[in-house]
Specification:
The chain is of the alpha+beta class. It has one domain: 3-Layer(aba) Sandwich (Glutaredoxin), CATH 3.40.30.10. Helix content is 37%, strand content 13%. It has five helices and four strands; from the N terminus they run βαβαααββα.
Length: 122
C-alpha cells in the first residue's frame, strides 16, 4: 500500500492521486493540512525521502511572509520544526511506499514510482 500526503486543492496533488488510483494500487490519503505531521513524523519522512530534504519546503509567498530564509531550513531538524509549525509550507504531494518516498512534482514522477514500489490491490 502507498500513502499520499495530499492537498485536494492542489491540481498536482489531485493528478498524483488519480495516477495512483488508475494503477489499481491501494492508497491511504493523508490530508496533511487537516492532520499535520509532527516534528518526528517529518524527520522520519526526511529519512526515506529520495529528494533533497530542502525540496520538501515550499519557498513561496507564505515562506517569505513568515520572514523565513534558507538558513531557517538548512538542516533536517530545522525543516521538521518549520513544517510541523507551518504545514502549508510542505511541498505536495508526497508519495510514500514502505521505506521510500518522493515528492510527486512534477506529477510524471508518480507513475514510475508506483510501478516500482507498489502492487495493484487484489
Amino acid at each position: 500500500m502507498l500513502t499520499i500526503l495530499h492537498n485536494p486543492r492542489c491540481s498536482t496533488s489531485r493528478k498524483a492521486l488519480e495516477a495512483i488510483e488508475a494503477a489499481g494500487v491501494e492508497v491511504g490519503v493523508v490530508r496533511y493540512l487537516d492532520t499535520p505531521l509532527g516534528e518526528q513524523a517529518v524527520l522520519d519522512l526526511l529519512d526515506i525521502l529520495e529528494d533533497a530534504p530542502g525540496d520538501l519546503v515550499r519557498h513561496d509567498a507564505t515562506f517569505t511572509d513568515l520572514g523565513l530564509t534558507d538558513a531557517d531550513v538548512d538542516t533536517p531538524e530545522k525543516i521538521a520544526d518549520v513544517l510541523a509549525e507551518h504545514p502549508r509550507l510542505m511541498q505536495r504531494p508526497v508519495v510514500i511506499a514502505e521505506d521510500v518516498a518522493i515528492i510527486g512534482r512534477p506529477v510524471d514522477r508518480v507513475a514510475p514510482f508506483v510501478e516500482e514500489h507498489a502492487r495493484p490491490a487484489e
